[in-house]
Here is the input.
Amino acid sequence: MKRTCYAGQVNEQHVGQEITLKGWVDRRRDLGGLIFIDLRDREGLMQITFNPEDLSDEIMAQAEKLRAEFVIEVTGKIAVKDVANEKIATGKWELKASELTVLAASQTPPFEIKDGVEVSDELRLRYRYLDLRRPEMLANMRMRHAITRNVRSFLDEAGFIDTETPMLAKSTPEGARDYLVPSRVNEGHFYALPQSPQITKQLLMGSGFDRYYQIVKCFRDEDLRGDRQPEFTQIDLETSFLDEEEIQEIVEGLLQNVMKNVKGIDISLPLTRMAYDDAMNFYGSDKPDTRFEMRLSDMTELAHKTDFKVFTEAPVVKAIVAKNLASNYSRKEIDKLTELAKQNGAHGLAWVKLENGELSGSVAKFLTEISDELRLELKLEDNDLVLFVADTLGNANSALGALRLHIAKAHDLIDQSLFNFLWIVDWPLFEWSEEEGRYMSAHHPFTLPTEETVGYLLADGRSEDSDLQKVRAHAYDIVLNGYELGGGSLRINTRELQEQMLTALGFSQEEAEEQFGFLLEAFDFGFPPHGGLAIGLDRFAMLLAGKDNIREVIAFPKNKRAIDPLTEAPSPVTQKQLDELHINTIDTIK
Here is the structure.
């Protein structure tokens, strides 16, 4: 029989009608001969009643064998229930069965198919096709679909052209580790799966497309965490002849459209803009969560008035105040905060409490002479806890930024109903890498420096005191609730400037030609000013769904070890396959 509608779509218009439903057995109840089945499909539940007074022994025997997750087709008339179930949308009606067909039997599932099930992530991923049957998982995936539908509609109306770019690309440096794909027909050569379509979308601007977008898979072989996967999806866009404010206006309109149509939330425009330096100095992060206060305060000048050598010999002393939380922190708890500070770059953590009008704590005796100024500067009240880091500016910001977030989460200081978008602008073009011992691109090597600072680009990038630290970028990140939602910039569009940028990053002329010669050559043929942005679709969907891990909004994600427990990918391959690819492997102990 043809399915009449989804189970969750049955309504008063169906009362008295004979309809056919198809789906999974969610629950079975046997009440003295009467058998009740809750039928589940993607739209909801519908109660099915099997009454032995109306049905043959054969149908009742079939109904008695039904168990959870059997797939069935059932036909019958819709009737009004004597007692409604207000918890579900179809709770006022029941289907009185007249026919039943079992389409597929099921073993007992390894976990219940219901929301809030207490089961390990590994087991959920091992049986992901069962996990996705749960209503909350289906809701997550539908929200993701709603986001992409609205994105496509908005960008189509704004004149963007949806264009695919290659999945098999050239491996280039200056980024995360590439996933490499060996070429069978070109022995010893490899493709790279793209970390982003960055260069190809720039080439599309050189082709005159003017406005491009793509919802595209990207790949990065890096250590995983809650908001990272080896393969992820970007809402990627690029434009020609627009400045950064114009690009930001388009993105703001896109975000406003999605928030209204997907969440029913109106966000006011323009969004807040915050300079990179302010974000780091006040929040200790380039992706600040502004849903709560507890800003970092620079106490260097005041701290240098003390006789405390740790303060007076440090280049910077900064502090945060945990309001009305001093009584929550014993010495043991503060030791835990100290370890967290050290994990984030600090050499140590100093602290005082204001209790009964008096300062107490590890450094209170050193602050006697400045206690009044300290209270005034930090607006201290009884039961406030002050945490100090005396260190370099970078270490102080990093450590206190981490403590700020930790304390806020531990004490529920964050209003989870808020969606705080903001732009981080005025970025440095380079950032120093201790691991590499040189400056690297803060975004990527194709970011346009500002006219005021481009003159510093010719400096040697292998000294931490190099003038490269003074170069600023036409770059902008969009941040939502403490997550980098997306990042973008204006791009370099001339060979001369691009070569200067690559030289500053340590490329020789030969290396630049080998890695990026095709792009440099393209610049010789009239390349327009251009810029764009990419938004992480997985993170966006995660935040709108109120989750803290992007696995919750990806149909088939990998685990923490970049393994798919369902298919067991990655897996060994045959020697024949390796021989065809001209690859030998080194035996390792499992």
Remarks:
- The chain has three domains: 7-104, 138-274+420-575, 292-410.
- The longest helix spans residues 135-157.
- DSSP finds 16 helices and 22 strands in the chain.
- The mean pLDDT is 95.
